[in-house]
Amino acid sequence: MRITLIQSLIWGEKPLSKKQFFWNIFSFVAILALVVYVLQVRSDIEKIKGESAEWEGIAKSEQEVPDLNKRAESFLDDLTHGESKKYLTGLALDNYNAALKEEEEEHGEEFHNHNHIDTSEQDLEIIQTSTEKTDLEEAKSTILYKLEYTSPFDVEDAGLVDKRILTLSINIKWVKDDDEYKVERYEVTLLEDNLDQYLASLNGKDSENE
């Protein structure tokens, strides 16, 4: 009787058979499970879309590497000519402005207008350039290069060779600033100096003579 009363409350005045009652319960549970499944599938689809968009962003970011290699080499070339300001941002720009202000205070206000680096006797040779993306809008570049300085006394035809050759590396940290990659920080490291080798050879000769 109790079951019949509950059935009447749930399904109406006319009592349902036990078979019909359980069928309705089964149908309700099946529909509920289907709804949960559909919601889960929709959630999975949204997750896949999100992951796909993320991977597309990473792939697009990696495509910037060749251009950053070229930009790194252009930055180095301009840096050796004293024309790097347009590439700089953040700490690198602050350091540049601080150094410029110090030079102007030491040499006068007209220093900046007349400060042109003479690089006519300087040759830049880039040995290797590599760039790695560290984030979607950040990267780091490393360049191995040589700077060759030729003195006025260098006359190869006469057998006089007077050159100073420096082997260096530069590490550059790039950040995206207004849709353009700029140098936030850079560090130059001297790896080899042929002058040191020459002086070491002289010391070796002096030791032999002693």
Provide keyphrases for this structure.
210 residues; alpha+beta; 4-stranded antiparallel β-sheet; 6 helices
How would you describe this structure to a colleague?
- This protein is α+β, with helices and mostly antiparallel strands and 210 residues long.
- The chain is built from 6 helices and 4 strands; from the N terminus they run αααααββββα.
Write the layout of secondary structure elements.
Elements: H1 2-11, H2 18-62, H3 65-80, H4 90-107, H5 111-114, E1 122-135, E2 138-150, E3 163-177, E4 180-193, H6 194-209
Instruction: Give the overall silhouette.
Output: elongated
The average pLDDT score comes to 77
User: If helices are DSSP runs of H or I spanning 4 or more residues, what is the number of helices?
Assistant: 6
Number of strands: 4
Distance between the termini: 123 Å
Low-confidence stretches: none
Helix/strand/pairing category: alpha+beta
Rg over CA atoms:
36 Å
What is the element string, with H for helices and E for strands?
HHHHHEEEEH
Strand arrangement in the largest pleated sheet: 1-2-3-4
Largest sheet: 4 strands, antiparallel
Strand content: 25-35%
Binned, the helix content reads 40-55%
Structure in a nutshell:
This protein is α+β, with helices and mostly antiparallel strands and 210 residues long. The chain has six helices and four strands; from the N terminus they run αααααββββα.
